[in-house]
Amino acid sequence: MPGMKDDYEYDAEGDVKMAIPQPIFEVTRAPSLKVWSQSAITTFLRERKQCEGKVIEQCRVTGEVQAAVTRSIRSTLEPRVLEHVAHYLLKQDAASVSDDMLVAEMKRKVGTMLIEDNGLASMLGRGVAIDEQSRQRMKLRCEG
């Protein structure tokens, strides 16, 4: 090519031939939990599941051991969040907290979430779908 050194090999289209193949996978970063709240934990668990799926796929192709590649949940928590959860919720030292304990506490926290009433239940109604006069509830809502 004009104006360039002839240190490189070129293909038929004029592109430089790469000596090192480009990486197959992108860098996968484990999500981190910065706040101990229901919404943050829900987001963290969802992102963690997606990240683990990517790692499983990568390990299947490359032959790596998944346990060696995946970061522990304990290491993805901010240090102050880990200290808070260990001291106040689990009543243990932060060094003795395991991933299983953290997952159980996260599921307990998310499992007690209350779904706020956004009016959908009152529109659909509660109880049986057919009233005493054998009319369906949704048809009643659409008629008038």
Automatic annotation (TrEMBL):
This is Uncharacterized protein. It comes from Phytophthora fragariae. The lineage of its organism: Eukaryota, Sar, Stramenopiles, Oomycota, Peronosporomycetes.
